[in-house]
Specification:
The protein is an alpha+beta fold and about 650 residues long. The chain contains 23 helices and 23 strands. The protein binds zinc ion.
Length: about 650
Amino acid sequence: MDKTSLSMEGECDWIKYKELTSILQKASYAYYGLDRPLMTDKEYDDLYDELSTLEKETNCVLAGSPTIKVQGYLLNGFTKVKHTKPMLSANKTKDTKEIEKFVTNNRFYGSYKLDGLTVVVRYKNGEFAQGITRGTGIEGEDVTEQCRFIKNLPMTIPYKSNLELRGECVISWDEFKRINRNLDTPYSHPRNLASGTLRNLDLNIIKDRNLSFVVFECVTDMKEDSKSETLIDVHNMGFEIVPITKLNSTVDQVSNALQPEFYQYPTDGIIFELDSRKLSESLGSTSHHECCRMALKWEDEPYETKLKDIEWNTSKTGLINPVAVFEPVDLDGTITTRATLHNVSYIENLQLGIGDTIQVYRANMVIPKVHSNLTRSNAWKLPDKCPCCGGDVEIHNENGSKTLHCMNPDCKAKLLGKLVHFVSKNAINIDGMSEATLQLLIERGWVKSFKDLYNLKENQIYLWKYHTVGFGEKSVDKLLENIEKSRNTTLDRFIYGLCIPLIGRTASKEIAKFFKYDYKKFRTDGIVTHYSQIDGFGDNMNQSLHDYLRENHMKIFTLADEFIFETKSESSNNADLSNKTFVITGSLNHYKNRDELINIIEQLGGKVSGSVSSRTNYLINNDVTSTSGKNKKAKDLGIPIISENQFVQMITS
Ligand SMILES: [Zn+2]
């Protein structure tokens, strides 16, 4: 395009045009490539509409414009696969008259426009063969292994020829709420959650979240002209398909039948699809969309209100989340006063200030969002202290969006997060110790560290038992008992419980194995060990461990005093006790009871006898100086007397 041929007015349009294109490209990358939206869907749609109007007016479209280029980006770490035919967008409108013009007298049906991650699945010989994300539309990412964890996706089907289907990977609203409840930084929309889940390289995460695959198109020509009939055939093979309306419905009937709140999955509109495959093929496509379908997007009604406050809340990880507090508005029947502001960049973009007139809406009829700021005073202030602990804060740049973090390692909000992790099932495992209880113990000032859990004072326990609403004497006793029980632990649980950055459960197990589950070895060598020599450990993990151990070694040592480290049977299996006879006497504190110890000795090939004789190899007794008959006899016969801990070392070293 020749810039000089434009009039003054045209010049302004040109600048505006370039600006819009660049904003939309950035937003699109943040949205598709990083799963971290920079703006609301509505803002994006509005800018998109503005851009396409401008393009129509000026009759000029740049290569790379989001209106002609299919949006979507590839992440690294996945194999790229070419699509058999380009995956294009649907042409969109908000006007039902446009839809009526589009369908004219042709056979058509309506279906929900699913709001998730589009995925192609391929079958060979009746077996699931491959899953590919939409990616750029020309090539996508191979997510075959991830797809195997989608519960409603059949792995074998009765149809034996090659089959290719397009569908949407979605998470239902119910599942979205369930998963978000357990997340520190909740996802803003099931689409981001579905996308983040399917493209996760950790398959366990996919397993835990109920992803669904809903078919909306059969790519393979099944010698059936009616696309709706074909979809029903696909349904009969065992697939979940998107709900479709009857062929003789009117546009209005379809719009009324397919309301978003009727459907368990998130949707962002209705697809009107011409039913004849032959007709569809003859219509062809532009570089942006296929001409056989059109999407009706729902208008999200924005409401005006006044911003009263921006609240900042410190989460368990130290991330400080902003929330908009505004004068009550009725959003489609629900009185709403708060909406998330996501992060610092989001507020910067909206140029918020207390007293500003803002527009809020319910995104996809569910999540309240701030859509725009009409007055843009930009008078908002970034907190310079953590709202929870008053500690220093820092801005981090995460994938292009600025986030605020509390830097105080002893911040109460973070302490709660760490404690919740510490007592969790896979860590130290204090049964029945809930987040609410930990919160109470922190608020009372009784627990300021992990170790404090094991040193609750008499008067604290008294107050807890008799003067804390919601606690019974018995439940406190039970909890105290469970705290005591948790003192018997293993090195991997202990390390995992510490919340060392980058060190998850598997890594903790590897470290424990490396030290043969021996805490003493870990204590002496932990800080000088090059962890990179362990399989799966990179430089970052090694660095993280060294940083953590250097800063916290005294804390770890005194904390470890509270525990008795059990050895794992998997490591002790290496020890060979055949031809060894043991006698056990006195009380035990490492093993639960005498039977447990006898079992271990016998599993390792040893024998246990009731009395000391010349054939005895070891007497196990924690009180080495005891003057009991067995001790005396052992001493007389020169038989070594060992404590439980010495026994544990014997079978693990
Ligand atoms: Zn703080």
